[in-house]
Amino acid sequence: MKNTITVSVCVVTYNHEKYIRECLESIVTQKCNFNFEVIIGDDCSTDKSRSIIKEYETKYPNMIKTLFHKENIGGTKNYLAVHSQAQGKYICHIDGDDYALPGKLQAQVDFMNKTPNCNICFHRVKGLYPNGDLKNDLVEYEKIKNGFKRQEILMFMAVAIHSSKMYRKDVRDIYIPAFDRLDWYMNIEQIGDKKAYYINNNIYGVYRIGVGVSTHGRERIKSLIIKTLNYAKIHYPQDKAYMSSIALILFLSNLKNRRPFVAYFFEWIKLFSIKGIYLTIRTWKIRKMFRIGK
Fold first, then answer.
1. What is the DSSP letter of 181?
2. What angle do CA 78, 159, 239 make, to 5 degrees?
3. Residue 51: CB partners within 8 Å, gap ≥ 6?
4. Beta bridge partners of 137
5. Which is it for strands 64-68 and 134-136: parallel, antiparallel or unpaired?
6. Is it the case that residue 112 has pLDDT exceeding 70?
7. Is 3 exposed, middle or buried (0-12, 13-18, 19+ CB in 10 A)?
8. Is 103 left (phi over 0), alpha (psi -120 to 50) or beta?
9. pTM recorded for the entire structure
């Protein structure tokens, strides 16, 4: 049908006055051979983010839909509220402080259309540092072009920047636990029995370093990682070795950086397996790719 929406681009924002215009402009100017909508959830920003969003809502009334929360509801609830409104066959997520590069939506849709065993796809990004430096990520596409299964998502945890994610609407409505979910949790559940892929070796987005939620609240993030591991232990006991590997990596990382590591140490002990140690050693070099370039 002529007016069918193929992609819903979900944008979550809070006090992104400095960035939201560039984010939205990068989306509405995408050249595509299909229709797409943009759903923006503003979590009661106290700066001028909302007025900028309203400008775009007025300029693109048939494309942009807004959710202006009357009080701050937090990142998880804002995310869920925005994604629940998506009408597209495919759903794309972009944080309000990041932005897309030309060709992003078309490339991801083309990949999803031709790859039926893919529930989630990502793309490479550039990292934008506070000093203005723009650097490519460290992803070596040829080493991961065959994609990831759930076990590998469990083991690697963060395989891509969240603002590069597109997934099928069919897998949107998953169980939401009582604790706040991490992007990692969503990927674990939405991948289902299929795979997640990088679409190709091209770069289609820019991620701002030092701005997002992962740059602060370290103790909260640690708590959510452990809660996610506890959830996975119950629901995917057959994948214990893969969870053992990520628990070991987290323990070693905190030990190396002289941060409190007791919680991760005990998680690793509870999940201990010889296979987990083997997996950690075998995939050591691959893990280094899932960071922004230095």
1. P
2. 100
3. none
4. 292
5. unpaired
6. yes
7. exposed
8. left
9. 0.91
